[in-house]
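Q: Here's a chain of 73 amino acids. Please give me its 3D structure as tokens.
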Amino acid sequence: MDTDTITEKDRKLARQCLECPMCKRARAKQRGLVFWFVKKLESGICPACKAYEKVYKRKAHEPMPSGKPEEIS
């Protein structure tokens, strides 16, 4: 199976990450305890953060380029 293929499940999990209060705060503030927590645990534990990285090609703690969520294509 191709690991670069984005499935519907990946899209749903990435949407959860977009709506997650902790991940939202980490993307917006870029500092503090929540930022550190998301940065350290996103790729190892959280399936929504992993899916976010796969769909958007950036880490869950990294800010959105335009400042607002992109549509998942």
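Q: Can you summarize the key feature?
A: The radius of gyration is 12 Å.
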